Description:
The protein is about 30% helix and about 25% strand. By secondary structure, it is α/β, with parallel strands linked by helices. It folds into two domains: about 1-90; about 95-285, 3-Layer(aba) Sandwich (Rossmann fold), CATH 3.40.50. The longest helix is centred in the first third of the chain and has 16 residues, at about 50-65. About 40% of the residues are buried.
Amino acid sequence: MSIRVADEFSDITASFLAELTGGGVEQSMIQPGAEPSASTVTGYLENDAELEVNRKKILHFIQHLTGEKPQASFAEIIEEDWGKNWKKHFKPVRITNRITIKPTWESYRPGEEEIIIEIDPGLAFGTGLHASTRLALSLVEAAFAETNKPQTVLDVGTGTGILAMAAAFLGAPRVTAIDNDPDAVVCARENVSQNRLDHAVGVSGADLEEFPGPFDLVVANITSDVLTLLAPILHRIMAPGGKLVLAGILAGEQAQSIRQTFGTLGLRLKQSPIEGEWQAFLFSS
């Protein structure tokens, strides 16, 4: 089942499909520099007695989410493993100047000084294909390009663990990755082990309040409303001279609100790249 939705609804649609089907979900890859207005989300439904019920659930969810009639198409896959079919479209891709994301099942030969992060997304968000994740990765890389490289890092809402692993590969010896989704915690731990980063990255399902810091770099790729709610805590746990990367923010009103909220706390804006409908921020204390 493939659904065409506005880019701002892509992540929540993928999460709903993953939860309903219990299988892999494919989000159409958006090439860096492109400015699409919509994305295609594909999920795989088992052809059983629940097929029609689940199909109606999905269509109802999309219509309620977007307020419009769903643009959906259906195709039957014969004699294929529907739970793994989506993997055919997830290929190695260069995300930043140094970072390449590759699925665990693909072979790839890295270039000189190229960082390879192996990802098995499972049910968690963060393959590097979505613009918000790419923006966050580019700002994490920028934070490590400065003279005072972060030594302690906190990744809030880690998902697959992709940002935490990037920080470790870029040189941070102590990285903490947290998420309140148990599936994400399991997925992130598996990805950390797959990338042989257990010595540097610890994954936890504990609440943010249990990590007082201070951290040289705090990263949060989540929704703007949650970022606004967490703003005082994120600011408090930053080390003097520390950096803060925020992503998952739509350009426009959301971005303006985030800039004002964190600027009011005394943080200085260093970078604020935009890709398509998404914007990210790098602040310093």
